[in-house]
């Protein structure tokens, strides 16, 4: 029977979720979907002081926005505390772990002495039971931590799906605390119990977890579990070459939503931050899932490129269905005070503007032009922007528009006929027309503008400056 793939994304809800975090969710999701497996969201919320429900909500919203659907979860570690305590007791009873009464002050003094001796700071095994060893007297009124009996000698070796073979000597690892004095379990221990209970087959996560992996492997082996495949993803750097983080100015996923980015563009961009499929730059979510494999993951850090993301967003806006795009843009238009129900058809406006826009906000801002009241030009403004010599051509253009079919092609023909009759070039006529219509000379193609604005409204506005 082939292995049933099960992956997980296991964030700590201690801050906002940025693009680097989301990439760590995207790859295990894609791997599960490619292999018809399961994708699980696990919330590692044992840090009670820093965890918050708001951060959990942002994680769930961000994943839903990108379309990273779940098969299980969210599963909260704090709801599994009894399970962790049960396993801790089993390990102590089996001699796999032991109580340690060394105080924090004693531990700090030990580490200071080791550093003074130019030794690696580490727990010295004082309370570790060994055959023939006499342990210190248990101090009165002191609650112990529980430590895992890490193997002595040998190495932890695993074949990382991204980094290749990694070997860490057990002599580099001391006996890890797996439960605090109050009985709450520690991160590296919870992760192992969760991965075993949830039958995780592939752990795909950031390479900041590489140093945790040998400890987790040793605990997993002690519990008799089958090791998952590990794939540690290179760091995502910001545009200054620093590790992406809130401290270094990373934007949250909510920021990108508010800035008018499309989720398809974000997903496409994230996919390329450490993975590639030939020369493909723009692809659908379905193509990405079909192509994804661990062998194509890169080993070098990926660098965030805001310009590339903006370019991708433009590609997706440019190729989006106009009706769907109009629906997505309306909330941004409403924020700008645009009443999309009065005035030109909003879908037509969006269709006209989308090829020049990088974000939904840019579309909304450009759309304002079509929903403002008709401009009221003073005599001085008309004289400054509409030369008297061009007025006869404007009069002829108004007449031509009146009789033309209401289409871009017909209006284009009307312009050409008037230009030919008056022996003038397009800018000489188009710029005054733009100013007459909107009190600006910056608009999309004027024949398309006339279609969106409407024949009657256009004639009314143009007539005001020539009569």
TrEMBL record:
Annotated positions binding ATP:
246
Q: What is its main location?
A: cytoplasm
Listed under GO cellular component are:
cytosol
UniProt xrefs under Pfam families: Anticodon_2 (PF19269), tRNA-synt_1c (PF00749)
Q: Where is this motif: 'HIGH' region?
A: 11-21
Catalysed transformations (reactions): tRNA(Glu) + L-glutamate + ATP = L-glutamyl-tRNA(Glu) + AMP + diphosphate
Q: State where the protein is found.
A: Cytoplasm
Q: Which family does it belong to?
A: Belongs to the class-I aminoacyl-tRNA synthetase family. Glutamate--tRNA ligase type 1 subfamily.
Q: How does it assemble?
A: Monomer.
Q: What is this protein called?
A: Glutamate--tRNA ligase
């Amino acid at each position: 029977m082939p292995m049933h793939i099960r992956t997980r994304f296991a964030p700590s809800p201690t801050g906002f979720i940025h693009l680097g975090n989301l990439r760590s969710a995207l790859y295990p999701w894609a791997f599960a979907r490619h292999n018809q497996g399961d994708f699980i969201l696990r919330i590692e919320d044992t840090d009670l002081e820093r965890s918050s429900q708001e951060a959990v909500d942002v994680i769930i919203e961000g994943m839903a926005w990108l379309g990273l659907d779940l098969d299980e979860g969210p599963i909260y570690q704090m709801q599994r505390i009894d399970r962790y305590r049960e396993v801790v007791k089993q390990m102590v009873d089996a001699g796999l772990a032991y109580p340690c009464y060394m105080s924090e002050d004693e531990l700090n003094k030990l580490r200071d002495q080791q550093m003074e001796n130019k030794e690696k700071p580490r727990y010295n095994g004082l309370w570790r039971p060994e055959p023939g060893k006499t342990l210190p007297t248990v101090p009165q009124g002191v609650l112990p931590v529980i430590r895992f009996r890490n193997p002595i000698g040998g190495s932890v070796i695993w074949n990382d799906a991204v980094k290749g073979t990694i070997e860490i000597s057990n002599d580099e690892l001391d006996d890890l605390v797996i439960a605090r004095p109050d009985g709450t379990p520690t991160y590296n221990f919870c992760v192992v119990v969760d991965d075993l209970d949830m039958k995780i087959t592939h752990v795909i996560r950031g390479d900041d977890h590489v140093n945790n992996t040998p400890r987790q492997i040793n605990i997993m082996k002690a519990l008799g579990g089958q090791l998952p495949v590990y794939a540690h993803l290179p760091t995502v750097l910001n545009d200054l070459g620093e590790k992406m983080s809130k401290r270094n100015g990373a934007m949250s996923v909510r920021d990108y939503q508010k800035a008018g980015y499309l989720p398809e563009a974000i997903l496409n961009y994230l996919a390329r931050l450490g993975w590639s499929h030939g020369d493909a730059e723009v692809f659908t979510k379905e193509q990405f899932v079909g192509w994804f494999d661990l062998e194509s993951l890169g080993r070098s850090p990926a660098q965030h490129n805001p310009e590339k993301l903006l370019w991708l967003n433009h590609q997706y806006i440019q190729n989006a269905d106009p009706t769907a795009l109009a629906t997505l843009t309306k909330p941004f238009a409403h924020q700008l005070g645009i009443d999309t129900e009065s005035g030109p058809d909003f879908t037509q406006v969006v269709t006209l503007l989308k090829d020049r826009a990088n974000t939904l906000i840019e579309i909304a801002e450009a759309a304002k032009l079509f929903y403002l009241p008709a401009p009221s030009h003073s005599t001085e403004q008309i004289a400054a922007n509409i030369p008297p010599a061009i007025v006869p051509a404007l009069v002829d253009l108004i007449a031509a528009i009146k009789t033309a079919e209401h289409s871009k092609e017909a209006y284009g023909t009307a312009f050409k006929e008037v230009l030919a009759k008056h022996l003038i070039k397009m800018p000489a006529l188009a710029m005054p027309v733009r100013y007459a219509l909107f009190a600006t000379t910056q608009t999309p193609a004027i024949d398309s503008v006339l279609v969106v604005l409407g024949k009657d409204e256009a004639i009314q506005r143009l007539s005001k400056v020539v009569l």
